[in-house]
Write a structure and sequence with these properties.
1044 residues; six-stranded antiparallel sheet; six-stranded mixed sheet
């Protein structure tokens, strides 16, 4: 992110509109912000931070506190920033919630916070990306990919915050590095491996459960050994399968024996069944013989009835030969009767038509006499049609009058309703605005509560760290006391050893002198003093010490001295650890006192308990408040909708009022024209309906008269034609009837002749013998069936008599009992066979299934062994308790430290080097990303928190520059094109300042912009671009100053 233009209005010390155009820097990539204390240097960083995130650059300032006290009441606080990010230009504008003096009356009204974000194209046109605070915050986080705290730790480092990235714990660093290097994919790998391992584990357990279930389904056949094995919580297949094979073999052997027994029993059953079937056949034949004897007796009784039916069939067939001639006579008789009936109907119609003709002639005469009436009505019709246009115009204008009256009334009613609705909406807007203001105040309170909660959490963290440091100090003191005691003992031991050595050395020297004295000769020079005389030669004492004893004593003394040196070194180290722990305790105490003024070492635990209780209370209050403030967007939207509705309603009211005036004007004009037309119209005809009604009545009367006259003419003509047709039809019918009577007499004579030929003497005898063909056919079939049945019964009865001759009646009940016993025994044995066969098949299937399951479980266990191991490693179950993602982040951090150390070594003249703490932290504390510093002077590592102020600044600056290098190198989604630093250089000596400036100068080649707030003169002299901030009585102002 690179700022292009910052505009601040009524913001901080800037009373009016202050514009800082960063494009004036042109190709310069470093500038100093200079000015007196309180002039507004940090407010520039606050403005940039507030524009982007709605928060100041420091935690001790919030948006509501940034309004300028120099500003006029009617000038709202507002900040806008134009910035470039990844070759795109964005424009963001924000204003905090603030109080504005009312335009009318006394007092102030609350103006809600606003935020808008735009994308600026090459032509300067702006495209809206977000239009409210919430949407803008989400969009900014998406674009910059850093939240406000991360922004302060990486890009804009305000006063007091420069060391936070350096000294933050592993968890805080992890959040920052995750965002910078997009390591979510490694977390997904952890989750994927965990899920896959869990799935494989579940599949293995499922396979084992399935195998156990299969084993429990085994048919044990009463085997105690396998039943005992199956009673275990998890049956062992290695024990059960051999036993299963054994009992299955025993069952198969029993199955073969049972199969032979069933075969013998089946033969016995079949023999019993044969005897039963033979007896049943004999009994059936005996029963059939009895039935045939009864059937023959019945047929003999029926013989006379069959003979009578044969005679009736013969008469019916002879009567059937006369049916055709009889039908001819009946048809002719029916035709004569039909013709006579139609003749009577025509005679009746002819008489009726003659009467109708007389009436029609009278009606035609009467209608011809009404000719004058018809002509009068046609004349009136012509006059009425000539007035059509005047009537229609009058009717239309009268309708317009009525319509306009109603419209004017409706407009007045609508206008009143709109006024009432507008009043109601205004009251509703005021009510919603009041509720929204309360929620905004609650939202502001939430910010304060969150800040207080954060402060408390920080204090709790400091108190925890203080407690840990106190424990470490106690442990160090105990160790120091122990080492001091060990040192005292070692000193005493060394003193004794040296005294002993001295005593041994004296004895050794004395003995050595005696040896030399023993070798002296008078006149020969002494090898020690050179004298030729030896007045007092040394004499050997009783305690002689050899040279080997003396060397051994020296060696023992040297070992004890070395041990003393080691113990003294351990004592000094323990003492240094105590001092370091004491220093850490007091530093932790000072850090804690910065948050809690009244805390001391004695009541730290009490403070911790109170703060934890307060933290819990704040969490509950925050949760309650956030549930309430979540309704702010809904309220805001509703107020906007209501306000827009009021605006639309006002426009509608103006429109309604205008329409009412136009309606009244039209009413006056049309009413005058209506009065003029009324003078020319007939009485009673003013409306179109009255006109149409009168016209319709005339048309109906004329049509009715014309229709009646024409109808009278048509009726007379039609009746004349009908009379002629009826007379002709009557004559034709009389001729046809006479011809049909002649034919009927001829056919009757033919019928009587055929009647006598068939043997009938009278028509009654013939009529009695007539039968339909269905009866004849049925009767003949009955006679034929009787004959066939009689023959069949006689023949079969004779056959049975011959077959049963000499045979006694068998005892079927006894034979069935014998067969039933055999069948029952066979069924029992078959059931045993089937059950045994089924259980054998079941056990064999179970054995195959279990063997298959064992193969599957073995394969799954093999997979789980690999995947589960990988999952455990990636989830941190390893020597260093590092997850896969944190391992990758640690690698990135190593790259950052490598880049940072190049600068830190230069700035500290090779003394300090940043290291990543690789040892595991105690307990379950997340580790792997904390920093240590290696001090070349002591050759030891220590925590970065032990660095002095100036040393911390150098380390933090190196780390920030190294982070920027590595992020740019990896081309992540986060763009680090800018860095702002507020103070810190004042803690450096002259040499360190030169080294820091040199490090900052090196990054200019990458094109990154560095802005520094500093009072250090040497820094101003070395950097050729300054943003001067001038303080005045009416507010501050800014100006870029360039040295070249």
């Amino acid at each position: 992110m690179r700022p292009l233009k910052l505009e601040m209005q009524a913001f901080g010390p800037y009373a009016g509109i202050e514009i800082i155009d960063f494009t004036q820097l042109e190709s310069r990539t470093m500038f100093v912000i200079s000015g007196k204390t309180g002039a507004g240097k940090t407010s520039i960083f606050d403005g940039i931070s507030f524009a982007i995130y709605g928060k100041a650059s420091g935690e001790d300032r919030n948006g509501a506190d940034l309004r300028s006290h120099f500003a006029k009441d009617d000038l709202l606080t507002e900040v806008s920033l134009t910035f470039q990010l990844r070759d795109k230009i964005y424009y963001i504008c924000r204003s905090p919630q603030q109080e504005r003096k009312k335009a009318r009356g006394d007092g102030y009204t609350t103006v809600n916070a606003k935020a808008e974000l735009y994308l600026v194209d090459e032509s300067g046109a702006k495209k809206l990306l977000a239009a409210n605070v919430r949407d803008t915050e989400e969009k900014i986080k998406e674009i910059i990919q850093l939240d406000a705290n991360q922004f302060r730790q990486i890009l804009m480092i305000p006063q007091g915050d420069f060391r936070k990235l350096l000294t933050s714990d592993s968890k805080e660093k992890e959040v920052i590095l995750q965002r910078l290097f997009h390591t979510e994919q490694y977390k997904k790998i952890e989750v994927m491996l965990k899920d896959k391992a869990g799935l494989l584990k579940n599949e293995v357990e499922g396979g084992i459960n399935q195998r156990s279930q299969k084993l429990r389904d085994i048919f044990t056949n009463g085997n105690d050994e396998i039943e005992s094995a199956l009673a275990e919580p998890v049956p062992s297949d290695t024990i059960i399968l051999p036993l299963l094979q054994k009992i299955t073999g025993e069952m198969s052997q029993r199955l073969a024996e049972l199969e032979k027994e069933i075969e013998i029993r089946q033969k016995q059953r079949d023999e019993a069944k044969r005897k039963v079937d033979e007896a049943e056949n004999i009994l059936n034949e005996m029963n059939n013989r009895s039935a045939l004897e009864k059937q023959k007796a019945l047929l003999d009784e029926k013989k006379s009835s069959i003979d009578e039916k044969r005679k009736a069939v013969d008469l019916a067939r002879r009567a059937g030969n006369l049916a055709h001639q009889e039908n001819i006579c009946q048809r002719l008789k029916k035709e004569i009767d039909d013709k006579a009936s139609r003749k009577r109907k025509v005679e009746e119609d002819l008489a009726f038509t003659k009467k109708e003709k007389i009436t029609a002639d009278e009606n035609l005469k009467r209608e011809e006499d009404r000719r004058g009436k018809r002509e009068e009505l046609h004349a009136e019709m012509s006059r009425l049609e000539s007035l059509r246009e005047d009537v229609l115009s009058f009717s239309s204008r009268k309708a317009d009058i009525q319509r306009l009256e109603l419209e004017a009334k409706d407009y007045r009613k609508k206008l009143n309703e709109q006024k009432e609705k507008a009043t109601e909406w205004r009251e509703l807007v005021e009510k919603q605005q009041d509720e929204l203001n309360k929620l905004r105040q609650l939202q502001d309170k939430n910010i304060t509560l969150k800040e207080e909660k954060l402060r408390i959490e920080q204090a709790i963290d400091h108190l925890h760290q203080l407690a840990v440091s106190i424990e470490k100090e106690k442990t160090a003191n105990k160790l120091s006391v122990q080492r001091e005691k060990e040192l005292q003992l070692a000193n005493a031991k060394t003193k004794d050893a040296l005294e002993t050595l001295k005593h041994i050395e004296e004895k050794w020297l004395s003995g050595h002198a005696a040896i030399l004295a023993g070798k002296l000769e008078n006149g020969c020079p002494c090898p020690v003093c050179g004298s030729a005389e030896h007045p007092s030669p040394a004499h050997a004492s009783g305690d002689y010490v050899s040279e080997e004893d003396f060397e051994s004593a020296k060696k023992d003394a040297r070992i004890i001295e070395e041990q003393l040196a080691e113990i003294r070194q351990e004592w000094m180290k323990a003492k240094a650890d105590v001092e370091l722990c004491e220093k850490t305790v007091f530093e932790k105490l000072d850090a804690t006192k910065a948050l809690l003024m009244d805390v001391n070492l004695e009541d730290a635990t009490l403070h911790l308990q109170k703060l934890q209780k307060k933290q819990q209370e704040l969490s509950i209050e925050l949760k309650s408040n956030e549930m309430k403030t979540s309704k702010i967007p809904e309220k805001d939207t509703k107020i906007t909708q209501l306000s827009q509705g009021l605006k639309d309603l006002s426009a509608k009211m103006d429109e309604t009022s205008e329409k009412e005036r136009e309606t009244v004007h039209q009413y006056v004009e049309i009413k005058a024209a209506l009065q003029s037309l009324a003078l020319n119209l007939p009485e009673g005809i003013e409306t179109k309906e009255q006109y149409e009604s009168r016209l319709s009545v005339l048309q109906k009367e004329i049509k009715q008269l014309d229709d009646i006259y024409k109808q009278a003419q048509d009726v007379c003509s039609k009746l004349n034609e009908q009379l002629a047709a009826q007379k002709m039809a009557l004559q034709n019918m009389e001729e046809e009837i006479e011809e049909l009577n002649n034919s009927l007499n001829t056919e009757r004579e033919k019928f009587l002749h055929q009647l006598h030929q068939e043997g009938f003497t009278t028509y009654g005898e013939y009529a009695e013998s007539k039968k339909d063909s269905a009866w004849i056919q049925t009767t003949e079939e009955e006679i034929k069936a009787y004959g066939e049945e009689y023959r069949s019964v006689t023949d079969r009865l004779k056959d049975y008599e011959e077959r049963l001759k000499g045979i006694e009646r068998p005892d079927l009940e006894k034979l069935n009992e014998e067969f039933g016993e055999q069948e029952k025994m066979l069924l029992s044995m078959s059931a045993q066979f089937s059950n045994l066969k089924m259980n054998i098949n079941k056990n064999e299937d179970i054995q195959l299934d279990v063997q298959q399951l064992n193969l599957q479980i073995k394969e799954l266990e093999k997979q789980y062994e690999l995947i589960g191991h990988l999952s455990d490693i990636t989830r941190g179950q390893n020597t260093y308790k590092l997850t896969f993602e944190r391992f990758v982040l640690a690698s990135f951090l190593d790259d950052i430290l490598a880049a940072a150390n190049g600068r830190l070594l230069k700035m500290t003249s090779g003394r300090y080097q940043l290291l990543r703490k690789k040892e595991r932290s105690k307990g379950n504390v997340q580790s792997g990303l904390e920093l240590l510093v290696f001090d070349q002077y002591t050759g030891q590592e220590r925590h970065v928190k032990t660095l002095s102020g100036g040393e911390s600044f150098k380390a933090a600056l190196s780390l920030a520059l190294g982070l920027s290098d590595v992020v740019q190198e990896h081309a992540g989604g986060v763009s680090l094109e800018t860095m702002f630093i507020d103070e810190g250089f004042g803690t450096l000596d002259s040499e360190s300042l030169d080294q820091a400036i040199e490090a900052l100068m090196e990054i200019q080649s990458s094109g990154r912009l560095v802005g520094i707030i500093s009072h250090v003169p040497e820094l101003k002299e070395r950097i050729d671009a300054r943003l001067e901030v001038f303080a005045g009585q009416s507010g501050s102002s800014t100006e870029f100053v360039f040295l070249s």
